[in-house]
Amino acid sequence: MDTSPDSLSLAAAEAALRPLPKVSLHDHLDGGLRPGTIIELADEAGLALPFADGAKLGAWIAEQSNAGSLSDYLKPFHVTGAVTQTHQSLARVAKEFVQDLAHDGVVYGEIRWAPENHLRRGLSLDQAVDAVQEGIEAGIDDITRTGRKIKVGQLLAAMRHDSRALEIAELAVRHRNDGVVGFDIAGAESGFPASRHAQAFDYLAAGFLPVTVHAGEGDGLESIRSALFDGRALRLGHGVRLAEDITAHSQETGTGFLLGELSQWVKDRQIALEMSPSSNLQTGAIAPWGTDLKDHPFEVLYRLGFLVTVNTDNRLMSNTTLTRELAHLARAFNYGLADIKTFQLNAASAAFLPLDEREELKNDIRAGFDGALLATKPAVRL
Ligand SMILES: [Zn+2]
Question: Which of 4, 73, 101, 368 has its CA 20 to 30 A from that of 222?
Fold first, then answer.
Protein backbone atom coordinates (compact mmCIF):
# COMPACT_ATOMS: atom_id res chain seq x y z
CA MET A 1 0.00 0.00 0.00
CA ASP A 2 1.19 3.46 -0.92
CA THR A 3 1.53 5.47 2.28
CA SER A 4 2.96 8.66 0.81
CA PRO A 5 1.26 11.83 2.17
CA ASP A 6 -0.20 12.58 -1.28
CA SER A 7 -1.77 9.17 -1.56
CA LEU A 8 -3.19 9.32 1.95
CA SER A 9 -4.78 12.71 1.44
CA LEU A 10 -6.30 11.56 -1.86
CA ALA A 11 -7.73 8.56 -0.03
CA ALA A 12 -9.04 10.82 2.74
CA ALA A 13 -10.70 13.14 0.22
CA GLU A 14 -12.25 10.12 -1.52
CA ALA A 15 -13.58 8.76 1.77
CA ALA A 16 -15.23 12.11 2.50
CA LEU A 17 -16.79 12.42 -0.96
CA ARG A 18 -17.89 8.85 -1.70
CA PRO A 19 -21.11 8.82 0.38
CA LEU A 20 -22.32 12.17 -1.00
CA PRO A 21 -25.04 12.13 -3.72
CA LYS A 22 -23.53 12.50 -7.17
CA VAL A 23 -24.59 12.69 -10.82
CA SER A 24 -22.67 10.96 -13.61
CA LEU A 25 -23.46 12.21 -17.11
CA HIS A 26 -20.54 10.92 -19.17
CA ASP A 27 -19.57 7.33 -18.48
CA HIS A 28 -19.09 4.71 -21.22
CA LEU A 29 -20.44 1.21 -20.70
CA ASP A 30 -17.50 -0.43 -22.48
CA GLY A 31 -15.08 1.77 -20.52
CA GLY A 32 -16.33 0.66 -17.14
CA LEU A 33 -16.06 -3.13 -17.04
CA ARG A 34 -14.62 -4.79 -13.95
CA PRO A 35 -11.29 -6.46 -14.87
CA GLY A 36 -12.42 -9.70 -13.20
CA THR A 37 -15.55 -9.71 -15.36
CA ILE A 38 -13.49 -9.25 -18.53
CA ILE A 39 -11.46 -12.32 -17.59
CA GLU A 40 -14.56 -14.45 -16.97
CA LEU A 41 -16.32 -13.27 -20.12
CA ALA A 42 -13.17 -13.82 -22.23
CA ASP A 43 -12.94 -17.32 -20.83
CA GLU A 44 -16.56 -18.06 -21.75
CA ALA A 45 -16.05 -16.63 -25.25
CA GLY A 46 -12.74 -18.50 -25.75
CA LEU A 47 -10.75 -15.28 -26.16
CA ALA A 48 -7.09 -15.00 -25.16
CA LEU A 49 -6.05 -12.08 -22.93
CA PRO A 50 -2.53 -10.85 -22.07
CA PHE A 51 -3.19 -11.50 -18.34
CA ALA A 52 -5.36 -13.98 -16.44
CA ASP A 53 -5.27 -11.92 -13.24
CA GLY A 54 -7.81 -9.10 -12.79
CA ALA A 55 -5.46 -6.64 -11.08
CA LYS A 56 -2.73 -7.14 -13.71
CA LEU A 57 -5.21 -6.83 -16.56
CA GLY A 58 -6.68 -3.64 -15.07
CA ALA A 59 -3.20 -2.12 -14.67
CA TRP A 60 -2.26 -3.11 -18.23
CA ILE A 61 -5.41 -1.50 -19.67
CA ALA A 62 -4.83 1.69 -17.68
CA GLU A 63 -1.22 1.80 -18.90
CA GLN A 64 -2.27 1.26 -22.55
CA SER A 65 -4.72 4.13 -22.17
CA ASN A 66 -2.00 6.49 -21.01
CA ALA A 67 -0.32 6.97 -24.36
CA GLY A 68 -1.31 10.62 -24.78
CA SER A 69 -3.68 10.69 -27.76
CA LEU A 70 -7.37 9.96 -28.23
CA SER A 71 -6.64 7.25 -30.81
CA ASP A 72 -4.26 5.41 -28.41
CA TYR A 73 -6.70 5.88 -25.55
CA LEU A 74 -9.40 4.13 -27.58
CA LYS A 75 -7.31 0.97 -28.24
CA PRO A 76 -8.23 -1.06 -25.10
CA PHE A 77 -11.86 -0.83 -26.17
CA HIS A 78 -11.09 -3.70 -28.56
CA VAL A 79 -10.78 -5.92 -25.47
CA THR A 80 -13.94 -4.73 -23.71
CA GLY A 81 -15.87 -4.77 -27.00
CA ALA A 82 -14.81 -8.33 -27.79
CA VAL A 83 -16.29 -9.73 -24.57
CA THR A 84 -19.64 -7.90 -24.77
CA GLN A 85 -21.28 -9.37 -27.86
CA THR A 86 -24.08 -11.41 -26.30
CA HIS A 87 -27.30 -10.70 -24.43
CA GLN A 88 -25.92 -12.28 -21.27
CA SER A 89 -22.62 -10.41 -21.28
CA LEU A 90 -24.24 -7.02 -22.02
CA ALA A 91 -26.83 -7.55 -19.29
CA ARG A 92 -24.10 -8.54 -16.83
CA VAL A 93 -21.82 -5.58 -17.46
CA ALA A 94 -24.78 -3.16 -17.35
CA LYS A 95 -25.90 -4.60 -14.02
CA GLU A 96 -22.40 -4.37 -12.54
CA PHE A 97 -22.06 -0.85 -13.93
CA VAL A 98 -25.13 0.26 -11.98
CA GLN A 99 -23.87 -1.45 -8.82
CA ASP A 100 -20.47 0.24 -9.17
CA LEU A 101 -22.06 3.66 -9.69
CA ALA A 102 -24.25 3.22 -6.60
CA HIS A 103 -21.25 2.09 -4.56
CA ASP A 104 -19.58 5.35 -5.59
CA GLY A 105 -22.51 7.45 -4.33
CA VAL A 106 -24.02 8.13 -7.76
CA VAL A 107 -27.79 8.70 -7.48
CA TYR A 108 -28.38 9.46 -11.15
CA GLY A 109 -26.26 8.11 -14.00
CA GLU A 110 -26.42 8.08 -17.78
CA ILE A 111 -24.69 5.09 -19.36
CA ARG A 112 -23.54 5.78 -22.88
CA TRP A 113 -22.60 3.10 -25.35
CA ALA A 114 -22.66 2.31 -29.07
CA PRO A 115 -25.03 -0.59 -29.86
CA GLU A 116 -23.51 -0.96 -33.36
CA ASN A 117 -20.27 -2.20 -31.73
CA HIS A 118 -22.01 -5.17 -30.11
CA LEU A 119 -23.59 -7.04 -33.03
CA ARG A 120 -20.75 -9.41 -33.98
CA ARG A 121 -22.39 -12.47 -32.49
CA GLY A 122 -25.83 -12.05 -33.94
CA LEU A 123 -27.64 -9.53 -31.73
CA SER A 124 -29.85 -6.97 -33.49
CA LEU A 125 -29.64 -3.32 -32.43
CA ASP A 126 -32.95 -3.60 -30.56
CA GLN A 127 -31.88 -6.81 -28.82
CA ALA A 128 -28.64 -5.17 -27.68
CA VAL A 129 -30.55 -2.21 -26.19
CA ASP A 130 -32.97 -4.61 -24.47
CA ALA A 131 -30.06 -6.60 -22.98
CA VAL A 132 -28.47 -3.47 -21.50
CA GLN A 133 -31.84 -2.31 -20.18
CA GLU A 134 -32.41 -5.69 -18.52
CA GLY A 135 -29.03 -5.37 -16.79
CA ILE A 136 -29.70 -1.79 -15.70
CA GLU A 137 -33.03 -2.76 -14.19
CA ALA A 138 -31.50 -5.76 -12.40
CA GLY A 139 -28.78 -3.47 -11.01
CA ILE A 140 -31.35 -0.91 -9.83
CA ASP A 141 -33.37 -3.71 -8.16
CA ASP A 142 -30.24 -4.86 -6.31
CA ILE A 143 -29.51 -1.35 -5.05
CA THR A 144 -33.13 -0.70 -4.09
CA ARG A 145 -33.10 -3.88 -2.00
CA THR A 146 -30.24 -2.45 0.04
CA GLY A 147 -32.34 0.63 0.82
CA ARG A 148 -30.47 2.98 -1.50
CA LYS A 149 -31.73 4.95 -4.49
CA ILE A 150 -30.35 5.18 -8.02
CA LYS A 151 -31.85 6.20 -11.34
CA VAL A 152 -30.08 5.26 -14.59
CA GLY A 153 -30.73 6.02 -18.25
CA GLN A 154 -29.15 4.86 -21.52
CA LEU A 155 -27.50 7.30 -23.90
CA LEU A 156 -27.16 5.65 -27.31
CA ALA A 157 -24.08 6.66 -29.27
CA ALA A 158 -23.41 6.31 -32.98
CA MET A 159 -19.81 5.88 -34.12
CA ARG A 160 -18.87 9.08 -35.90
CA HIS A 161 -16.58 7.43 -38.50
CA ASP A 162 -19.40 5.05 -39.49
CA SER A 163 -22.61 5.67 -41.41
CA ARG A 164 -25.25 4.30 -39.06
CA ALA A 165 -26.12 7.47 -37.16
CA LEU A 166 -29.64 7.76 -38.57
CA GLU A 167 -30.32 4.11 -37.73
CA ILE A 168 -29.07 4.68 -34.16
CA ALA A 169 -31.11 7.87 -33.86
CA GLU A 170 -34.21 5.91 -34.88
CA LEU A 171 -33.27 3.19 -32.39
CA ALA A 172 -32.95 5.78 -29.62
CA VAL A 173 -36.34 7.31 -30.36
CA ARG A 174 -37.89 3.82 -30.56
CA HIS A 175 -36.63 3.03 -27.03
CA ARG A 176 -37.31 6.42 -25.44
CA ASN A 177 -40.05 5.00 -23.21
CA ASP A 178 -37.94 2.01 -22.46
CA GLY A 179 -34.82 3.42 -20.78
CA VAL A 180 -33.16 5.56 -23.47
CA VAL A 181 -32.80 9.22 -22.51
CA GLY A 182 -30.64 10.67 -25.29
CA PHE A 183 -28.20 10.38 -28.18
CA ASP A 184 -24.48 11.00 -28.73
CA ILE A 185 -21.80 10.47 -31.35
CA ALA A 186 -18.50 8.94 -30.23
CA GLY A 187 -15.14 7.78 -31.58
CA ALA A 188 -12.39 9.69 -33.40
CA GLU A 189 -13.50 13.34 -33.45
CA SER A 190 -10.99 14.90 -35.82
CA GLY A 191 -12.20 14.64 -39.42
CA PHE A 192 -15.65 13.43 -38.37
CA PRO A 193 -17.68 16.49 -37.35
CA ALA A 194 -21.34 16.37 -36.35
CA SER A 195 -22.26 17.82 -39.77
CA ARG A 196 -21.45 14.40 -41.22
CA HIS A 197 -24.52 13.07 -39.42
CA ALA A 198 -26.86 16.00 -40.08
CA GLN A 199 -29.69 13.73 -41.19
CA ALA A 200 -29.65 11.86 -37.86
CA PHE A 201 -29.58 15.10 -35.90
CA ASP A 202 -32.49 16.52 -37.94
CA TYR A 203 -34.45 13.37 -37.17
CA LEU A 204 -33.70 13.66 -33.43
CA ALA A 205 -34.63 17.35 -33.36
CA ALA A 206 -37.95 16.57 -35.06
CA GLY A 207 -38.56 13.88 -32.42
CA PHE A 208 -37.40 16.11 -29.53
CA LEU A 209 -34.88 13.59 -28.20
CA PRO A 210 -32.04 15.29 -26.26
CA VAL A 211 -28.57 15.24 -27.79
CA THR A 212 -25.05 15.50 -26.41
CA VAL A 213 -22.05 15.44 -28.74
CA HIS A 214 -18.42 14.58 -27.99
CA ALA A 215 -16.74 17.80 -29.12
CA GLY A 216 -13.72 19.84 -28.10
CA GLU A 217 -11.81 16.73 -27.01
CA GLY A 218 -9.88 15.41 -30.03
CA ASP A 219 -10.65 18.49 -32.15
CA GLY A 220 -11.15 22.20 -31.66
CA LEU A 221 -13.62 25.04 -32.10
CA GLU A 222 -15.00 24.07 -35.52
CA SER A 223 -16.03 20.68 -34.15
CA ILE A 224 -17.76 22.37 -31.20
CA ARG A 225 -19.49 24.77 -33.60
CA SER A 226 -20.74 21.81 -35.66
CA ALA A 227 -21.96 20.00 -32.51
CA LEU A 228 -24.04 23.04 -31.57
CA PHE A 229 -25.19 24.02 -35.05
CA ASP A 230 -25.60 20.68 -36.87
CA GLY A 231 -26.11 18.52 -33.77
CA ARG A 232 -28.20 21.03 -31.78
CA ALA A 233 -26.28 19.61 -28.80
CA LEU A 234 -27.72 20.48 -25.39
CA ARG A 235 -24.45 19.37 -23.78
CA LEU A 236 -20.86 18.99 -24.99
CA GLY A 237 -18.94 15.77 -24.39
CA HIS A 238 -15.87 17.26 -22.67
CA GLY A 239 -15.91 20.59 -24.55
CA VAL A 240 -12.49 21.28 -23.03
CA ARG A 241 -11.08 22.95 -26.13
CA LEU A 242 -13.81 25.58 -25.95
CA ALA A 243 -11.20 27.30 -23.80
CA GLU A 244 -9.32 28.02 -27.07
CA ASP A 245 -12.04 30.64 -27.62
CA ILE A 246 -11.14 32.41 -24.38
CA THR A 247 -8.17 34.76 -24.20
CA ALA A 248 -6.53 35.97 -21.08
CA HIS A 249 -5.53 39.61 -21.18
CA SER A 250 -3.79 41.75 -18.64
CA GLN A 251 -5.44 44.87 -17.37
CA GLU A 252 -4.03 47.45 -15.02
CA THR A 253 -6.38 46.11 -12.37
CA GLY A 254 -5.49 42.46 -12.96
CA THR A 255 -6.05 39.68 -15.44
CA GLY A 256 -9.28 39.44 -17.38
CA PHE A 257 -10.70 37.09 -19.95
CA LEU A 258 -12.14 37.79 -23.36
CA LEU A 259 -14.74 35.36 -24.67
CA GLY A 260 -15.32 34.73 -28.39
CA GLU A 261 -18.86 34.37 -29.78
CA LEU A 262 -18.83 30.60 -29.48
CA SER A 263 -17.72 30.40 -25.85
CA GLN A 264 -20.01 33.31 -24.95
CA TRP A 265 -22.95 31.35 -26.43
CA VAL A 266 -22.07 28.19 -24.51
CA LYS A 267 -21.77 30.19 -21.29
CA ASP A 268 -24.90 32.31 -21.78
CA ARG A 269 -27.04 29.35 -22.80
CA GLN A 270 -25.54 27.28 -19.93
CA ILE A 271 -24.72 24.37 -22.24
CA ALA A 272 -23.17 21.80 -19.93
CA LEU A 273 -19.53 20.80 -20.37
CA GLU A 274 -19.10 17.10 -19.53
CA MET A 275 -15.45 17.31 -18.52
CA SER A 276 -13.47 14.27 -17.39
CA PRO A 277 -10.18 15.37 -15.81
CA SER A 278 -8.14 12.13 -15.94
CA SER A 279 -9.36 11.17 -19.39
CA ASN A 280 -8.74 14.71 -20.67
CA LEU A 281 -5.13 14.40 -19.54
CA GLN A 282 -4.73 10.96 -21.08
CA THR A 283 -6.21 11.83 -24.47
CA GLY A 284 -4.21 15.05 -24.77
CA ALA A 285 -7.39 17.20 -24.78
CA ILE A 286 -5.73 19.70 -22.44
CA ALA A 287 -2.37 19.63 -24.29
CA PRO A 288 -2.74 23.29 -25.45
CA TRP A 289 -2.53 24.30 -21.75
CA GLY A 290 -0.13 21.70 -20.34
CA THR A 291 0.17 18.14 -19.10
CA ASP A 292 -0.76 18.44 -15.45
CA LEU A 293 -4.23 18.47 -13.90
CA LYS A 294 -3.45 21.97 -12.61
CA ASP A 295 -3.25 23.07 -16.28
CA HIS A 296 -6.82 21.90 -16.99
CA PRO A 297 -9.05 24.80 -18.14
CA PHE A 298 -11.75 23.43 -15.79
CA GLU A 299 -10.94 26.03 -13.14
CA VAL A 300 -11.08 29.00 -15.53
CA LEU A 301 -14.34 27.76 -17.07
CA TYR A 302 -15.83 27.28 -13.59
CA ARG A 303 -14.78 30.73 -12.38
CA LEU A 304 -16.16 32.33 -15.56
CA GLY A 305 -19.60 30.84 -14.92
CA PHE A 306 -19.76 27.99 -17.43
CA LEU A 307 -21.95 25.03 -16.50
CA VAL A 308 -19.07 22.69 -15.63
CA THR A 309 -19.72 19.06 -14.73
CA VAL A 310 -17.28 16.37 -13.61
CA ASN A 311 -17.30 12.91 -15.17
CA THR A 312 -15.24 9.76 -15.43
CA ASP A 313 -15.52 9.01 -19.20
CA ASN A 314 -14.04 5.51 -18.74
CA ARG A 315 -13.50 4.27 -15.21
CA LEU A 316 -11.51 1.21 -16.25
CA MET A 317 -9.18 2.93 -18.75
CA SER A 318 -8.56 5.89 -16.44
CA ASN A 319 -8.45 3.77 -13.27
CA THR A 320 -10.92 6.09 -11.64
CA THR A 321 -14.38 6.74 -10.18
CA LEU A 322 -16.47 9.91 -10.04
CA THR A 323 -15.40 10.28 -6.41
CA ARG A 324 -11.74 10.06 -7.41
CA GLU A 325 -12.12 12.61 -10.21
CA LEU A 326 -13.70 15.03 -7.73
CA ALA A 327 -10.93 14.36 -5.20
CA HIS A 328 -8.26 15.01 -7.87
CA LEU A 329 -9.91 18.32 -8.79
CA ALA A 330 -10.38 19.33 -5.15
CA ARG A 331 -6.66 18.81 -4.54
CA ALA A 332 -5.55 20.52 -7.77
CA PHE A 333 -7.71 23.63 -7.31
CA ASN A 334 -8.36 23.65 -3.57
CA TYR A 335 -12.09 23.07 -3.96
CA GLY A 336 -14.27 22.56 -0.91
CA LEU A 337 -17.56 20.78 -0.46
CA ALA A 338 -19.54 23.82 -1.62
CA ASP A 339 -17.75 23.68 -5.00
CA ILE A 340 -18.26 19.93 -5.33
CA LYS A 341 -21.94 20.45 -4.53
CA THR A 342 -22.18 23.06 -7.31
CA PHE A 343 -20.73 20.57 -9.82
CA GLN A 344 -23.40 18.01 -8.82
CA LEU A 345 -26.21 20.58 -9.07
CA ASN A 346 -24.88 21.59 -12.50
CA ALA A 347 -24.95 17.96 -13.63
CA ALA A 348 -28.47 17.51 -12.26
CA SER A 349 -29.62 20.61 -14.17
CA ALA A 350 -28.18 19.18 -17.38
CA ALA A 351 -29.47 15.61 -16.91
CA PHE A 352 -31.66 14.29 -19.71
CA LEU A 353 -34.59 13.94 -17.32
CA PRO A 354 -37.95 15.74 -17.17
CA LEU A 355 -37.72 19.05 -15.29
CA ASP A 356 -39.63 17.81 -12.24
CA GLU A 357 -37.24 14.89 -11.81
CA ARG A 358 -34.24 17.20 -12.17
CA GLU A 359 -35.62 19.40 -9.41
CA GLU A 360 -36.16 16.36 -7.21
CA LEU A 361 -32.59 15.25 -7.91
CA LYS A 362 -31.29 18.70 -6.98
CA ASN A 363 -33.20 18.56 -3.69
CA ASP A 364 -31.59 15.20 -2.90
CA ILE A 365 -28.15 16.61 -3.67
CA ARG A 366 -28.74 19.70 -1.52
CA ALA A 367 -29.93 17.54 1.37
CA GLY A 368 -26.88 15.24 1.15
CA PHE A 369 -24.30 18.01 0.84
CA ASP A 370 -25.87 20.38 3.34
CA GLY A 371 -25.78 17.64 5.96
CA ALA A 372 -22.08 17.09 5.27
CA LEU A 373 -21.35 20.83 5.22
CA LEU A 374 -22.98 21.27 8.63
CA ALA A 375 -21.09 18.31 10.03
CA THR A 376 -17.77 19.85 8.95
CA LYS A 377 -18.51 23.38 10.18
CA PRO A 378 -16.61 25.65 9.96
CA ALA A 379 -15.98 24.86 6.28
CA VAL A 380 -13.20 22.33 6.10
CA ARG A 381 -11.13 22.18 2.93
CA LEU A 382 -10.77 18.72 1.46
ZN1 LIG B 1 -16.56 9.92 -23.90
Answer: 73
